[in-house]
Design a protein that fits this description.
- The protein is of the alpha+beta class and 260 residues long.
- The chain has 11 helices and 7 strands.
- It is 38% helix and 12% strand.
- Strands 1-7-6 form a 3-stranded mixed beta sheet. It has a two-stranded antiparallel sheet with strand order 2-5.
- The longest helix has 13 residues.
- It is globular.
- The two termini are 19 Å apart.
Length: 260
């Protein structure tokens, strides 16, 4: 309890009668979330409320039909009242984001399997390493603590291909010689967000890659989505990987987000 303020009732318990899942179940009481969902803590309250309203209105969706928690979020948002949306947004915005993902450049990664949307390193028979290829593999540092104990203090490691961080920096700060727009124009010099434009520094690379891909595939039509269309239009999957690898490697921004 000392890690976060008092949770709003709907955040802590949800309401099954309205198909509202407790926010804390997936995003944790501290709002840090995990690789298979979102890390909303420390974002601007206006931004967070708008995302829930977009989901409620059906204009923010995912592009991967096999990813079931997109629909869970849509159902949750549709069941929430405007006041509950504002309560949860203010609660999450009141917390400071701290870094808990280590980015490691490598040629090889532990062999993993998917469980609950997480890459879990194989132990015992079948354990070993394999080439990373063109992937990002984001995995809990302590799989048991994350999966079964739901330890909100246990972070993640993101293995990325060698050179990804530098290539990503060139795209983020330089635009890749006209391929895209520099991120600092809208997200700020430290990439910690400006007003209701979100912070993108030190967040989950898996989550950020999904959002860029969703925008590229045209499944996000929310209030600010149009601003991102020229950013993602010419990005390849490798570009997206490199961008999020760099962003995840950054330190957490100074806590200057709008508070409730």
């Amino acid at each position: 309890p000392g890690d976060h303020p008092k949770m709003p009732e709907i955040y802590a318990k949800g309401d099954p009668a309205r198909k509202i899942i407790a926010c804390a179940l997936c995003h944790y009481p501290n709002g840090k979330g995990k690789a298979e969902n979102a890390p909303p803590a420390g974002q601007d309250a206006r931004y967070l409320a708008q995302q829930l309203r977009d989901m409620k209105a059906g204009v923010r969706n995912g592009s991967e039909p096999r990813k079931s928690n997109y629909q869970l979020m849509v159902d949750t948002a549709k069941g929430m009242t405007d006041e509950e949306i504002e309560q949860c947004a203010r609660y999450l915005a009141s917390m400071t984001w701290t870094k808990w993902i280590e980015v490691v450049e490598t040629d090889t990664v532990p062999k993993t399997y998917l469980r609950g949307g997480l890459h879990i390193p194989i132990e015992g028979e079948g354990a070993g390493t394999e080439p990373i290829g063109g992937r990002i593999v984001e995995s809990p540092v302590d799989p048991h603590g994350t999966e079964f104990l739901r330890n909100p203090r246990s972070g993640f490691v993101a293995w990325v291909p060698k050179g990804a961080v530098q290539r990503g920096a060139e795209l983020v700060y330089g635009g890749g010689a006209g391929k895209t727009l520099t991120c600092v124009i809208c997200h700020g010099p430290d990439l910690g967000g400006i007003g209701n434009i979100p912070s993108i520094a030190a967040r989950s690379p898996s989550y950020m890659a999904r959002q860029l891909n969703d925008m590229k595939q045209g499944t996000r039509h929310g209030e600010m989505a149009a601003l991102m269309r020229p950013v993602v239009a010419n990005l390849t999957s490798d570009d997206i990987r490199d961008i999020v690898a760099f962003l995840a490697s950054l330190p957490a921004p100074e806590p200057e987000r709008a508070k409730p």
